[in-house]
Design a protein that fits this description.
This protein has about 525 residues and is an alpha/beta fold. The protein contains 17 helices and 23 strands. The chain is globular and about 60 Å long. The N and C termini lie far apart (about 75 Å). The N terminus is likely disordered.
Length: about 525
């Protein structure tokens, strides 16, 4: 059978099926039509992937090998480009948030709990299932990752019990700090890694054996975080999610109160690390103002006592309390050397600090379809990173007390690092290594495979607001560097996993890998 005849026959069958469906159910809703359209798109993609991207005028099939050529070129470029720094960190101390993640498909959990889709509203705290429904709907409709604390212990335990019985639910290590420590211990065997945070029996079973856990961290129970995952184009009521992502919730006392903070900083005197990674601060966001102010007051002198030649990296995660974010921005960020965050946290910092591109609200997402996957525009992200470094970072002229010299931004489709170049080098390799590991971890691959990932950044873009040139990615040279006002910036696209197996922990893998490929120059202050 010729390609043309096969294709025409194929279309006739599909059209007949749709007509039959329409005639039998003339009252089809918008969601039903969306499902039908999704089905057609999948059929079309299956045909395209299986047979051809082009049919010639005479009906012959020509195999299109361009569909993965861009990805192949980027993978080859990364493999040739990524180089370790001249001096790699050897002794790393990481803290302070850890848990076991119960990872489960979100929609079956809501169905089992009889939670129905409804209105959207972002609650800073979840007091009941109604708050959960509204907050989940808010982020699900945007395809944005989020984390919120659940105050009702009984309802949270009921939800965990239901989730534990959903098919294919699994337990994994969780918590930004523990995930970063585990990633370094696994991927960088020459490094010695200490982790301090709440560690229960399940965590001890799952952690890499090389990870050093002081006895002060051992607890009789594990803190459980529920990771509610969803796929691209999942439908819940009237909402259709644009990308695969997850919603995290927990009733977690140890982490939400930063209970291990004192032990973590007290250990520095005896452990003497050459890199400190600190995460879990964002979880104080769920506490009342009196409590989180008291904990930050406790933190600041401990940060100040750390030697300036030992960089401390702060990894942020989902936050909602504007007062808390303001304290982090004004008090904590100038005391750390390196900052890791995604578009949600970056936009919130800019909004609270009256920075660029967030005048209308704390979001960088574009909903008009002008950017793929509703991702933030590249020039806006680099503008905000520059604003952070200029206003809260180290400067011999204006802010010599600050230690902030590096910001690592990571999103679904691209990463940007901005640095004070006298303090950090090898940033090109660091960004490339971080973007490369994102695709591998999402697809659960030892090595990237071009047919399992795809390039999703815009065809043209600007690097920053003053950039008068519209750029395009050169797949053979995907890493782009530039300098603005004395700061050094590096950009690299992500090869996004087509069918992600696990979305949680990507930011932690990205940031930890980027740090281990970075070269810190402690004499930058001289």
């Amino acid at each position: 059978m010729s390609a043309k005849l096969y294709f025409v026959s194929f279309l006739i069958v599909i059209v007949a099926c749709i007509c039959t469906l329409w005639l039998s159910k003339p009252e089809l809703s918008n969601i039903d039509l969306h499902k039908a359209n999704q089905y057609l798109e999948k059929i079309k993609k299956l045909y395209s992937d299986s047979f051809s991207s082009h049919i010639t005028e005479d009906g012959d099939v020509t195999v299109d090998d361009n569909s993965t050529k861009d990805e192949e070129s980027i993978i080859a470029a990364w493999n040739n480009f990524i180089k370790p720094p001249a001096t790699q960190f050897k002794r790393i101390s990481v803290g302070i948030n850890s848990c076991v993640d119960l990872i489960v498909k979100a929609l079956p959990v809501f169905e089992a709990l009889q939670i129905r889709p409804g209105s959207t509203k972002d609650h800073a705290l979840l007091n009941n299932f109604d708050d959960l429904q509204e907050t989940f709907s808010h982020f699900f409709s945007k395809g944005s990752a989020a984390e919120r604390s659940f105050t009702n212990k009984e309802e949270f335990e009921k939800m965990v019990s239901v989730a534990d019985n959903v098919p294919n639910s699994q337990y994994f290590l969780g918590g930004n700090g523990l995930l970063m420590a585990s990633k370094i211990a696994t991927n960088f065997p020459e490094a010695e890694v200490q982790y301090i945070g709440p560690v229960g029996p399940k965590i001890l079973e799952l952690i890499p054996k090389r990870l050093n856990i002081p006895k002060e961290s051992i607890l009789p129970h594990d803190e459980v975080h529920l990771i509610l995952e969803y796929k691209v184009n999942d439908i819940w009521g009237d909402y259709v999610t644009p990308v695969a992502n997850r919603f995290i919730t927990s009733h977690d006392v140890s982490n939400s109160e930063a209970a291990m903070m004192e032990i973590f900083f007290e250990s520095m005197e005896t452990y003497r690390p050459d890199l400190i990674i600190f995460s879990g601060l964002h979880l104080l966001d769920s506490q009342n103002p009196h409590f989180f102010k008291k904990r930050i007051e406790m933190l600041l002198p401990r940060l100040q006592m750390l030697p300036v030649f030992v960089p401390i990296h702060l990894e942020l995660a989902s936050m909602a309390n504007v007062e808390f974010v303001g304290l982090v921005l004004e008090k904590v960020i100038p005391m750390i050397a390196s900052l890791g965050l995604n578009e949600e946290e970056l936009a919130l910092l800019s909004y609270v600090g009256k920075g660029p591109h967030t005048e209308s609200g704390p979001t960088l997402k574009v909903s008009d379809g002008s950017t793929p996957n509703n991702q933030p525009e590249i020039h806006k992200v680099s503008d905000i990173i520059l604003w952070l470094l200029k206003n809260y970072g180290f400067s011999r002229k204006s802010f010599v007390e600050s230690r902030l010299t590096r910001v690592h931004f990571h999103s679904l489709t691209y990463h940007i690092v901005g640095t004070v170049p006298e303090a950090w080098t090898n940033s090109e390799s660091a960004v490339a290594a971080g973007t490369e590991v994102a695709g591998r971890q999402a697809c659960n691959l030892e090595q990237l495979e071009s047919d399992k990932v795809e390039l999703k950044i815009p065809k043209t873009f600007r690097l920053h607001s003053k950039d008068e040139k519209l750029r395009e990615i050169d797949e053979k040279r995907p890493v782009i560097s530039w300098d603005v006002d004395g700061y050094h910036f590096v950009f690299s696209p992500v090869l996004v996993c087509r069918h992600p197996i696990k979305t949680v922990g990507l930011g932690d893998a990205i940031s930890s890998t980027g740090l281990m490929y970075s070269q810190f120059l402690p004499k930058y202050r001289l």
